[in-house]
Amino acid sequence: MYSFDFARPTSVADAVAALGQEDAQALSGGQTLIPTLKQRLASPSVLVSLSAIADLKGVSAEGGTLSIGAGTTHATVAAEAGAYPALAELAGQIGDPAVRNRGTIGGSIANNDPSACYPAAALGSGATIVTNSREIAADDYFQGMFTTALEEGEIITAVRFPIPEKAAYIKFQQPASRFALVGVYVSKGAGGVRVAVTGASNDGVFRWSEAEAALAGDFSAGAVEGLAAPSGADMISDLHGSGDYRAHLVKVLTKRAVAKANG
């Protein structure tokens, strides 16, 4: 590592001010950033910890919407998001207990790792990402691998999930990292059917529109059976699995997620 200044503000306003310094970097749970610093792949002059901001923590449900503060850990979401069972179950599958007790939903969504679970939940639920200055629909927020609509110095303060009628997440995990080799999140609610896929595409999390169209008329695993799997050419190909293998998993896991959502 190397020397840097460390700030731990207690309000969002103070955090935004601290991030206005040259080469400042926000630090949430640190599950991605700290290893990055250790490998010297990032070298901020100031780390701005968000861990002391009470307003960024907590889970609440009201009027068919589940709101989660950006600083809320995965473990807390798993324990307290009972109003949205599929989301609570997803949070309980992230990493291991050490990761779940440090990592945060805001940090995960801000980082937008192409194999992370929360981006699939947000996109698959039609969530809204709330920042210190605006609200961003998930469809507009995720813009490619490790790329989001966040502007310099902008902080995620909360994520709001409309609670659907039915939802489920199925993850085929990479056993060492416990990231999704492929993960599929499906939901059916007032806004229609959504199918979001993580871990598979070179462009990061995406919606499988063909499956959504098929499921809109028949929300059953059989509706997916006749679909062609997405193109393997568009999928990640690495030592863990080829693009064609990941494309095959997208279809298989979508069917399983729909079956699970139907109980």
UniProtKB/TrEMBL annotation:
Cited InterPro entries: CO_DH_flav_C (IPR005107), CO_DH_flav_C_dom_sf (IPR036683), Diverse_Substr_Oxidored (IPR051312), FAD-bd_PCMH (IPR016166), FAD-bd_PCMH-like_sf (IPR036318), FAD-bd_PCMH_sub1 (IPR016167), FAD-bd_PCMH_sub2 (IPR016169), Mopterin_DH_FAD-bd (IPR002346)
Signal peptide feature range: none
Domain of life: Bacteria
Coiled-coil portions: none
Start and end residues of each FAD-binding PCMH-type domain: 1-166
Keyword Flavoprotein: yes
Pfam families found in the cross-reference section: FAD_binding_5 (PF00941)
Keyword Oxidoreductase: yes
UniProt entry keywords in alphabetical sequence: FAD, Flavoprotein, Oxidoreductase
An annotated Gene Ontology molecular function: FAD binding
Name this polypeptide is given: Xanthine dehydrogenase family protein subunit M
Organism (species): Sagittula salina
